[in-house]
């Protein structure tokens, strides 16, 4: 059995700002993926072009977007329908472009980040609203607690960690074009059932649970998904062929996914990793003491600690901090705006994962 879970409860206090995964000591960083997605080389990214990309494709129904992320597309509406027209009244009861414009259009990534910042700040300060930051804080504590509790229930847990990536670029008439970020997210979401069926086939003789989180890259705010599978594996029989099959399913069924940025090899920390000995996130100790026992601590696994700190809306803890280098032009904020705009879930788990 794992570490004792008898006194640890889901009533733990979730911390107000997440530890950055870069704070993991070197011996724990080696357990994490070596890369995040099929992003272009950081030096070759044209951020101006990327930020001018619309959130969604022109075929997307703008009525599925949050009202603050839809603007006038006809050029004839008054400024009053602009979601950013008056930042002091972001929840005002007036007609919006989404409701009144004959040709409403999604915002660009740049404007969406501005709107996200304004509206999320207003939610955080409104007593009758729950901000996405507050939801993230609650989920963080639940995910960390669920990881510890589930591993304690299993006789011999083996973890399978997957990183699923898509390229944000496509070629059009010989030129590189940025793909709408919600399109990328939908490609990942649409292939999930095939991947889940692959896992189910390979793990049909085991008790297993899973949790996944969609995040965005630090270089270009590209959506990607991390999946953590917990397998009760008494004889350590789970091998690299399980994550390899799952990743192959994803690459085969997902437009823009390539084998070139999905390495799955034994001993390589990349798109598919198997942990027979669960690495523990030691620096999480101070955040989650076991109830009623200040000297005893329960440690989450490194993969779940890494995943839970990649939730997009954590950026709100720093965005209004004058000492922070995060602003509305940061890929972190743009990624959170993309998460806000997406009609897809950015977090889910199996029914047996304790939340």
Note the main attributes of this structure.
355 residues; alpha+beta; two-stranded antiparallel ribbon; 29% helix
Topology:
Blueprint: H1 26-29, H2 47-51, E1 70-71, H3 97-100, E2 105-106, H4 109-125, H5 132-153, E3 157-164, E4 169-172, E5 175-178, H6 181-190, H7 192-202, E6 208-216, E7 223-232, H8 241-253, E8 272-275, H9 302-308, H10 331-341, E9 347-349
Antiparallel strand pairs: 1-2, 3-7, 3-8, 4-5, 6-7, 6-9
Helix pairs in contact: 4-10, 7-8
Structure commentary:
The chain is 29% helix and 13% strand. It has 355 residues and is α+β, with helices and mostly antiparallel strands. The chain has a domain at 21-44 and 130-312 and 345-349. The strands form three sheets. A five-stranded antiparallel sheet has the order 8-3-7-6-9, sandwiched between helices. Strands 1-2 form a two-stranded antiparallel sheet. Strand 6 (208-216) and strand 7 form a beta hairpin. The protein starts with 25 loop residues before the first helix and ends in a 6-residue tail after the last strand.
Count, helices: 10
Termini separation (Å)? Answer: 20 Å
Element order: H for helix, E for strand: HHEHEHHEEEHHEEHEHHE
List how many beta strands DSSP finds: 9
Largest sheet: 5 strands, antiparallel
Mean pLDDT, to the nearest integer, reads 85
| Residue share in helix | 25-40%
Shape: globular
* Alpha-beta classification: alpha+beta
Low-confidence stretches: 1-17, 287-296
Calculate Rg over CA atoms.
21 Å
Strand order of the largest sheet: 8-3-7-6-9
Beta-strand proportion: 5-15%
């Amino acid at each position: 059995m794992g570490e004792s879970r008898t006194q640890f409860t889901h009533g733990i206090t979730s911390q107000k700002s997440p530890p950055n995964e870069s704070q993991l000591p070197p011996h724990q960083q080696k357990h994490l993926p070596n890369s995040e997605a099929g992003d272009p080389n950081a030096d070759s990214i044209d951020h101006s072009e990327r930020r001018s990309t619309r959130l969604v494709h022109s075929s997307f129904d703008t009525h599925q977007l949050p009202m603050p992320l839809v603007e006038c597309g006809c050029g004839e509406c008054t400024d009053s329908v602009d979601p950013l027209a008056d930042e002091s009244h972001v929840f005002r009861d007036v007609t919006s472009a989404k409701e009144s414009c004959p040709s409403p259009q999604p915002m660009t990534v740049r404007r969406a980040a501005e709107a996200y910042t304004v509206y999320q700040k207003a939610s955080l300060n409104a007593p009758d609203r729950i901000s996405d930051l507050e939801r993230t804080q609650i989920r963080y504590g639940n995910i960390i607690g669920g990881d510890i509790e589930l591993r304690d229930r299993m006789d011999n847990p083996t973890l399978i960690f997957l990183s699923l990536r898509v390229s944000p670029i496509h070629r059009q008439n010989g030129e590189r074009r940025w793909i709408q970020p919600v399109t990328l997210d939908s490609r990942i979401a649409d292939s999930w059932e095939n991947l889940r069926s692959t896992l189910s086939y390979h793990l049909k003789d085991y008790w297993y649970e899973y949790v996944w989180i969609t995040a965005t890259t630090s270089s270009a705010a590209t959506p990607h998904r991390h999946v953590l599978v917990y397998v009760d594996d008494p004889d350590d029989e789970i091998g690299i062929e399980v994550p390899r099959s799952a990743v192959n399913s994803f690459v085969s069924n997902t437009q823009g996914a390539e084998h070139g940025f999905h390495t799955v090899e034994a001993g390589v920390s990349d798109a598919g990793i198997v942990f027979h000995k669960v690495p523990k996130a030691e620096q999480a100790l101070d955040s989650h003491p076991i109830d009623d026992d200040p000297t005893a601590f329960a440690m989450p696994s490194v993969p779940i600690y890494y995943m839970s700190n990649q939730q997009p809306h954590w950026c709100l803890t720093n965005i209004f901090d004058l000492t922070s280098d995060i602003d509305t032009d940061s890929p972190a904020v743009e990624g959170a705006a993309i998460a806000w705009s997406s009609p897809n879930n950015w977090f889910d788990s199996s029914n047996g994962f304790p939340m």
